[in-house]
Amino acid sequence: MTTTVAVAALAGGASINTAGLMDALVKVDRAWGMLADPDAEPAFRVSLVGLRDGPIECREGVVMHPHAAADHLDPPDLVVVPGLDDDLEPSFERNREWCPRIGAWHRSGSKVATSCTGAFLAAEAGLLDGKQATTHWIAARRFRRLYPRVRVTPERMIVDVGDVITSGGATTFLTLVVYLAERFGGHDRAVLASKVMLVDGERRSQLPYVAFARHRDHTDELVHAAQSLMEEDPAGQLSVGDLAHHVGVSSRTLGRHFKAAIDETPRRYLQTIRIEIAKRELEMTTDPVDRIGVRVGYQDPTAFRRAFLRLTGLGPRDYRRKFGPSA
């Protein structure tokens, strides 16, 4: 059975976000026809859809010409929403008109899949209230603030809640396409697509790729002061009580301020700083793992490995094999 797919032609972003998704979906069936069964019914019938007639301008002078306008299209089986541009807020506003259309298609029975920050449009349309979802890890805090009714899980690469499928960062649209091939076209077709596009369809976590964001985009001077103390001496033995004493409040008050300002506990923030330093050491040096652990404040190698695994999804040695200096 062929699944009709409408890829939303978003305006003003990188063309790869939209055209790449469409091309990869088409490639699923081309690969199957070339290498498996040339007479097979296609898994997808893909259309690039604009909000109205006429070309869509992307960044860097690229122009896309949609196959159809949304008003002229019957509700598709699947709507695929690409990621927004890096400058998220103006890109969202430029494409906000898509939200009612996505919501209407969904109410008519269309399933919706989002890539990267396309999840913002699905959330704004009300499709994710009370549901679990993911988006690019770098936008997760903003997503959580804007849509508190959505259970955002930025460590996940793909979240499928049945009628809505969300996926993580920018180029993970390829992983999303392999997942869609599995769900709508079957396992064999997905495996072949993964091989032809050289995509690891088994990637299920964004954690190994997450870079530490310093969380300084707030106005709480008390939290800024505590953050500075941690960042100046991350391997030190300052307890939460010591930090609270230095900034002149109780430990409980400091915890409340951290939660309100950056949605983290002081202890978790310190662990994140330490593990980010350890990641850089593993990427740039060949020093023994246990020695790196001590340098960032972990005297117990087991505790270091446990914390590293929880925050990155990989053990320190696996992380080094993936991102460390070549032999």
Overview of this protein structure:
The chain is an alpha/beta fold. The chain folds into 2 domains: 3-209, Rossmann fold; 221-323, Arc Repressor Mutant, subunit A (Orthogonal Bundle). The protein has helices spanning 15-35, 88-95, 98-107, 119-124, 140-146, 173-185, 187-197, 221-232, 240-247, 251-262, 266-284, 289-295, 301-312, 316-323; strands spanning 3-8, 44-50, 56-57, 63-64, 68-69, 78-81, 111-114, 132-133, 151-152, 158-160, 164-167. Strands 5-2-1-6-7-11-10 form a 7-stranded mixed sheet, with helices on both faces. It has a two-stranded antiparallel sheet with strand order 3-4. Strands 8-9 form a two-stranded parallel sheet. It is globular. 41% of the residues are buried.
Find the CATH topology of the largest domain: Rossmann fold
Give a quick account of the main beta sheet: strands, pairing sense, barrel closure.
7 strands, mixed
| Strand neighbour order, sheet with most strands | 5-2-1-6-7-11-10
Structural class: alpha/beta
β-strand percent reads 5-15%
Helix content: 40-55%
Number of helices: 14
Contiguous uncertain segments of 5+ residues: none
Strand element count: 11
Output the CATH class name of the largest domain: Alpha Beta
